Amino acid sequence: MTETQLKNVAGAAEAGVPATPLIEVRDLKVWFPIRRGVVARTVGYVRAVDGVSLKIFRGETVGLVGESGCGKTTLGRSILRLEKAAAGTVCLEGRDLLALSERQLRPLRRRMQMVFQDPFSCLNPRMTAMTIVTEGLRQHNLLEGDRAEVAANLLSEVGLDSDALYRYPHEFSGGQRQRLSIARALSLHPDFIVCDEPVSALDVSVQAQVINLLLDLRARHGLSYLFISHDLSVVRLISHRVAVMYLGQIVETGPAADVIGAPLHPYTQALVSAIPVPGRKKKKRILLEGDLPSPVHPPPGCRFHTRCHRAMDICSRREPKLYAQRGRRVQCHLYESKLEAVED
Amino acid sequence: MDEAGTQRINVSGTPAGAVGLRDLAARLRRRPTAMAALCVILLYGAAAFGTWGYTLLCRWTDRESIAERARMEDRYLPPSTRHWLGTDYRGRDVLWRSIFATRTAFQVGILAGAVSIAVGVSLGALGGYFGGAVDAAVVWVYSTFAAMPSLLFILSFSLVLGRGTTAVYLGIGLTSWVGLCRVIRAEFIRLRSAPYVEAARAQGIGHGRIILRHILPNALHLVIVFFTIRFAAAIMTEVIVSFLGLGVQLEPSWGVMIAEAKERLWQGVWWELAGATTAMFGLVLAVNILGDALRDVLDPRLRGV
């Protein structure tokens, strides 16, 4: 996708042109029950995702960042309905996926795929590369022509040799496995791919290769990604827009360059200040104190107030509204007087 | 690592389709006792199939099989050069009968093993994969079966179906699947949330295919090991049931031989008992040793990986 196209997408979204988002998540809640005792009584819920709204347009890459345990992966998985949502909607081009039965959903699964974090456990050890990349096609009756040829084409698209066809996952390196996993996702010609920390298990040198591959494929097939990562420098490289997640909620969204260049939310500021910059000797870091609070009993008011370096009285009492500014949204009391409150 | 992998494939030039089996064979070859046990089992297997063919041939040409050749004047002959293990109460050669009984043992072992694998794997897979009400039903069924004394079950089975081999195979198979069912269920519970199974779900692969193509191949080592254990156990159960007079009737069987041998054991006729038990002991021991070795080789948790 070129820069102009990218601007068009962003512009369309900003100008309020009634383009249906490819994926629209509305007030999604994923709560895991905590059961205890002999009768497995539900004593509480882990609120992994707690009221998230997010739009992803065709051809757009949204980076989802946040520290471990904030619910990034759960959000990605529940969009693909690998996790059961407690409330909210997830729409694919306006069609609510959460209302469908597993059988009705199956043909639509083709359009949304996933690349997993761990390239070692996400490939079946008993299947050859050829089976792995052509299985979905066979399931959806899309396999045309020679299976080996189709598989070889897919492998070459992700930069693997065709002599890899008959090899098993354990015969590949980590980077190669991740390529195989991408080829599998790509095989069904999806519109949308959830990339769940696709490079965090890889060496830095291999990370760059895989990122470049994802960029190439996006340009070639007009794919949309939800790119989940805790590494802001990787996210900046690949995303058009960024959503910052904290304790099951999205606290800030906006164009990647803006959010990372001039973060509004104190949490984003802390994350950005932690990006290592080569060459710079000493820099002021905002250190977050303490651990992520428990998602079973999230703090009242603003969830971030327990660790925020700019916390005020009001933060622990009232949940902040969402404030908007030129394609950006931030959920923080600091902007009460400066920005306009919006309903999302 | 990349280069090494590519080279290995190019040099061998064959698709690595048999990696699992080739790997298994290589690891077994490093265990001399297991290899010896395998040879013994193959020998027994050859005896079983050879005598089966011979028996069929005899029936076809209407000749008397050497295992059935009875001479009343030769009753209870002690071991000699003519009859290496003596003769039984009808003057039949004990050595030949011991060898011919191998076929019954193999038949029982393989068929009872197959029945119990079919039941155990399908119920365990369904319960473990789907969970919920299906799982509760499966657990209820296997708990019920586990609570029944298996010998009584087999005896009542053969009373209902009539004496004979079918009842014994079915009975032994239907009482011995619970262990496998438990293990397979546990493995399916573990693997149903494995990332590669999730990946298959995300691709829209159907339940049947996920169970059969994605999970089962990864639980197959359990089935192989279970089969070797049940094979030996089924042979012993058959011997017990035949000894009680409810199993195989007309064909040579170690259990029947032992039952008959007890009649004159007090008069010092030891050779029939010795022949049957030694033959059974050899096969059961060999299968057990191979089963142990297979478990060590196939179960990654025991390999310390």
The SSE order of chain B reads HHHHHHHHHHHHH
Q: Distance N terminus to C terminus of chain A?
A: 28 Å
Portion in beta strands of chain B = under 5%
What's the overall geometry of chain A? globular
Largest interface pair: A-B, 37 and 29 residues
- Total helices of chain B: the number is 13
**Would you identify the CATH architecture of chain B?**
Orthogonal Bundle
Helix content of chain B: over 70%
CATH homologous group name of the domain at 3-111 and 188-250 in chain A: P-loop containing nucleotide triphosphate hydrolases
User: Mean of residue pLDDT of chain A?
Assistant: 88
Rg of chain B (C-alpha, Å): 23 Å
The CATH homologous superfamily of chain B is termed: MetI-like
What is the CATH topology descriptor of the domain at 3-111 and 188-250 in chain A? Rossmann fold
Oligomer: heterodimer
Mean pLDDT of chain B: 84
The SSE string of chain A, one letter per element, is HEEEHEEHEHHHEHEHEEHHEEE
Counting DSSP H or I runs of 4 or more residues, the number of helices of chain A is: 10
Number of domains of chain B: 1
Instruction: Provide the low-confidence segments of chain A as ranges.
Output: none
**CATH first level of the domain at 3-111 and 188-250 in chain A: which class?**
Alpha Beta
Features:
heterodimer, A: 344 residues, alpha/beta, Rossmann fold, 9-stranded mixed sheet, 4-stranded antiparallel sheet, globular, B: 305 residues, mainly alpha, MetI-like fold, 13 helices, 0% strand, elongated, disordered N terminus
Task: Describe the structure in your own words.
The complex is a heterodimer of chains A (344) and B (305). Chain A has 344 residues and is an alpha/beta fold. Chain A has a domain at 3-111 and 188-250: P-loop containing nucleotide triphosphate hydrolases (Rossmann fold, 3-Layer(aba) Sandwich), CATH 3.40.50. Chain A is built from ten helices and 13 strands. Chain A has helices at 3-15, 72-79, 102-109, 129-139, 147-157, 174-186, 204-221, 232-238, 256-261, 266-273; strands at residues 23-36, 41-56, 61-65, 87-92, 95-96, 112-115, 192-196, 224-228, 241-246, 249-255, 322-325, 328-330, 340-342. Chain A has a nine-stranded mixed sheet with strand order 6-7-8-3-9-10-12-11-13, with helices on both faces. In chain A, helix 4 (129-139) runs parallel beside helix 6 (174-186) and helix 6 runs parallel beside helix 7 (204-221). Chain A is globular and about 65 Å long. The model of chain A has no long low-confidence stretch (mean pLDDT 88). With 305 residues, chain B is mainly alpha-helical. Chain B has one domain (92-305): MetI-like (MetI-like fold), CATH 1.10.3720. Chain B contains 13 helices and no strands. Chain B has helices at 2-12, 19-29, 32-61, 94-130, 132-147, 150-161, 165-175, 178-191, 195-202, 207-243, 254-264, 271-298, 300-303. In chain B, helix 4 (94-130) packs antiparallel against helix 10 and helix 11 runs antiparallel to helix 12 (271-298). Chain B is elongated and about 75 Å long. In chain B, 41% of the residues are buried. The model of chain B is unreliable at 1-19 (pLDDT under 50). The A-B interface holds A 80, 82, 105-107, 109-110, 112-114, 116, 118, 121-128, 135-136, 139-140, 161, 163, 165-168, 171-173, 176, 181, 184, 188 and B 1-2, 5-6, 8-10, 15-17, 19-20, 194-196, 198-206, 209, 213-214, 217-218.
